[in-house]
Specification:
alpha+beta; FAD/NAD(P)-binding domain; 10-stranded mixed beta sheet; 8-stranded mixed beta sheet; 20 strands; globular; FAD; MQO; EC 1.1.5.4; L-malate dehydrogenase (quinone) activity; flavoprotein
Length: about 500
């Protein structure tokens, strides 16, 4: 069985859904195919229960604005991530206007973003962070308090039975959001199907081969019945989570040399007790413990999935050699190549604290995990909370000219020199910045098409190529407009 298409998207997550949607708006005559190995889309990292749905905008996440060795704080990265999330908001707003997305409350809800810290050192840091952000247009409305009465109004569960005399502080941004990326992904793929895009599930891509004419032969096998076949495509995007590395390695592109991934799983404590859930409407982040990776920053989150509110606390790291929640136990070994072995070994040598952290996390039982929650919520009861398994995160390891190898926290697009194939590696802020990541991919892979596409891109994402934060009035207007379109005005 063989067919030829313009684009193959591998993986049924938010990245493929976003890229497919953009391409269908920009080039409606292109034939696009999506190959997903599981029985439905949005079953791995894009699934609502496999992530925290924070809508990462750097409003509350301290790891996007670390304190420097001299005690200074630089808002640059936080501003960049917020800019990227604003582009996602703009795209979703445009897609609602075009009837592509459903009622906003089906995938996004207003949820204040907070940061809560304890101890004199962290209180001093949070105050500096607040001072650095409060005059930035995209962070307008951020509030700071060390007053227990004020913090109790913002998030009562944080303050009940709190020990007297303990220094603490909090920031709050009422305009934060909770995003159900699973629902969002399913809606985008539903529209793509309506537009003639073949979204094929239970199809596992096995390898990728470059053809003489520069196109790619995507060799696959249907999981039901085992039927093999291939599809030829002018362009391939590998948005397959941790499996992206495996497929990019099989493609043979030199750009993937030196890359490896380290899989880290996660668990959350979850409660649906209505008495507890009713007392907390916020996403509250704090500092990561010493040696913990940035993705393990503890947070107590309101979640709204399928219209039902619950609370999540975590994450608690787990270890599995699988690159996906439903991957293979051989994944971590199968990635090893002569070109990435040394960088990966260097990462292992240079990050003993990460190994110690993972061992410590694996030794925690349910009661110990609720003890960690009590740092946030002193009144937490063991019986109110259950453990749920979250998704797998494949953290990027890669060559570094100075260190030999580094562990990178974030997302990275790897693209072939001719732009005919690209894949996404990494994790947070990931889904929240999908629009921005895919805009960058379009510029890299389709430079000759960009002049013709620019007008439509500005219709979909008005701040395309025009950062908002340096333009205070434009930033305010954009935030207000998208808040109204998405029904998330606090």
């Amino acid at each position: 069985m063989s067919e030829k298409v313009d684009v193959v998207l591998i993986g049924g997550g938010i990245m493929s859904a976003t890229l497919g949607t953009l391409l269908k708006q920009l080039q409606p005559d292109w034939k696009i195919e999506v190959h997903e190995r599981l029985s439905d889309v949005a079953q791995e990292s894009s699934n609502a229960w496999n992530n925290a749905g924070t809508g990462h905008a750097a409003l509350c996440e301290l790891n996007y604005m670390p304190e420097g060795p001299d005690g200074s704080v630089d808002p640059g990265k936080a501003i960049t991530i917020n800019e990227q999330f604003q582009q996602s908001r703009q795209l979703w707003s445009s897609l609602i206007d075009r009837g592509i997305l459903d009622e906003p409350s089906t995938f996004i809800n207003a949820t204040p973003h907070m940061t809560f810290v304890r101890g004199e050192k962290d209180v001093a840091y949070l105050k500096k962070r607040y001072e650095a952000l409060k005059d930035q247009p995209l962070f307008a409305g951020i509030e700071y308090s060390e007053d227990s009465r004020v913090i109790n109004q913002w998030a009562p569960l944080l303050m009940q039975q709190r020990r007297k005399g303990e220094p603490f502080a909090a920031t709050r941004v009422p305009a934060g959001t909770d995003v159900d990326f699973g629902a969002l992904t399913r809606q985008l793929f539903s529209h793509l199907r309506d537009q003639g895009v073949e979204v094929i599930t239970d199809r596992e891509v096995r390898t990728l081969k470059r053809q003489k004419d520069g196109s790619w032969r995507v060799l696959w096998r249907n999981r039901l019945g085992g039927t093999p076949g291939h599809t030829d495509a002018r362009f391939v995007f590998v948005g397959a989570g941790g499996w992206a590395l495996k497929l990019l390695q099989k493609s043979g592109i030199p750009e993937i040399k030196g890359y490896g991934v380290f899989p880290i799983g996660g668990q959350f404590l979850k409660t649906t007790n209505p008495e507890v859930v009713a007392q907390h409407k916020a996403k509250v982040y704090s500092q990561a413990s010493v040696g913990a990776p940035p993705m393990s920053v503890p947070h107590l989150d309101t979640r709204v999935v399928d219209g039902e509110a619950s609370l999540l606390f975590g994450p608690f790291a787990t270890f599995s050699p699988k690159f996906l929640k439903k991957g293979r136990i051989t994944d971590i070994v199968a990635q090893v190549r002569p070109h990435n072995l040394l960088p990966m070994l260097k990462v292992a040598v240079d990050n003993p604290s990460l190994i110690s952290y993972l061992v410590g996390e694996l030794m925690k039982n349910h009661s110990k995990k609720v003890d960690a929650l009590r740092v946030f919520m002193p009144t937490a009861r063991d019986e109110d909370w259950e453990l749920i398994q979250a998704g797998q995160r494949a953290q990027v390891m890669k060559k570094d000219p100075k260190k030999g190898g580094v562990l990178q926290f974030g997302t990275e697009v790897v693209t072939s020199a001719d732009g005919s194939i690209a894949g996404l590696l990494g994790a947070s802020p990931g889904a929240s910045t999908a629009a921005s990541i895919m805009l960058g991919l379009l510029k890299t892979c389709f430079p000759d098409r960009m002049p013709a596409w620019e007008g439509e891109l500005r219709e979909l994402i008005p701040s395309y190529e025009q950062p908002l934060n340096p333009r205070g009035e434009a930033a305010r207007a954009s935030v207000e407009k998208t808040a109204a379109a998405l029904s998330i005005t606090p």
